[in-house]
Amino acid sequence: MSLSARLSAIDARIADAARLAGRDPAGITRIVVTKFHPASLVHELHALGVRDVGENRQQELTAKRAEAALDGLRWHFIGQAQTNKAAAIRRSADAVHSVDRVKLADALHGAADDDDVLDVLVQVNLTDDTGRGGVAPADVERLAEHVLTLPSLRLRGVMGVAPLDENPAPAFERLHGIAAAVRALEPDATWISAGMTGDFAEAIAAGATHLRIGSAITGPRPGRG
Ligand SMILES: *Cc1c(COP(=O)(O)O)cnc(C)c1O
């Protein structure tokens, strides 16, 4: 299947899942995760109409954005971020989905230029493994409140990755409840970034607004299988 056919097939499945959930597909943003693929793939995707791409490593984001500075293209940073990479991430990302601690929020804010505002999401750890990235559900509101004190960051919502060892549906339901608590603090925090190649239909059923889909669209990642 060609890239164009894979993209259309996924978009059809997104539309089906949305209808099944009684949702308007237009309310769902499909981010194509291009990590490990060359910038040429981003050019191809852009030519096919893709306007949202995702990267999970700062160096790759920075390099690829320089090679594919395309009209209307939005870059989403979705990976775990070291504080010392915050300034570089801020320079290259239009949205950061993975704010999971006060120090990282402060570093992103500290790297702001003038009146520049960055869209950010609080990443929630939906597993019991503290190494997997994301803030524990019990600490989400405290972190969200901190982000709301930083004028160069615009809190847009929450992000989550389903656990590997659990049905994704209940995990995404937990994320949906946490998203509502964050929206009570900030009405504009309407994004729920959830759902990947293997679980985007479950994420849509649980209210996801931003899907992060890689391999089903791009094919296997080079050197990663
Ligand atoms: C790689 C990645 C994705 C996309 O994964 P696929 O299974 O290839 O769709 C989504 N979210 C995050 C955080 C990722 O790192």
UniProtKB/TrEMBL annotation:
Keywords attached to this entry: Pyridoxal phosphate
Listed cofactors: pyridoxal 5'-phosphate
Domain Alanine racemase N-terminal: 7-222
UniProt xrefs under InterPro entries: Ala_racemase_N, PLP-binding_barrel, PyrdxlP_homeostasis
Record keyword Kinase present: no
Modified residues (N6-(pyridoxal phosphate)lysine): 35
Entry similarity comment: Belongs to the pyridoxal phosphate-binding protein YggS/PROSC family.
PANTHER family named in the record: PROLINE SYNTHETASE CO-TRANSCRIBED BACTERIAL HOMOLOG PROTEIN, PYRIDOXAL PHOSPHATE HOMEOSTASIS PROTEIN
NCBIfam families to which the protein is assigned, alphabetical: YggS family pyridoxal phosphate-dependent enzyme (TIGR00044)
Job description of the protein: Pyridoxal 5'-phosphate (PLP)-binding protein, which is involved in PLP homeostasis.
Protein name in UniProt: Pyridoxal phosphate homeostasis protein
Species in which this protein is naturally found: Microbacterium tenebrionis
Phylogenetic classification of the source organism: Bacteria, Bacillati, Actinomycetota, Actinomycetes, Micrococcales
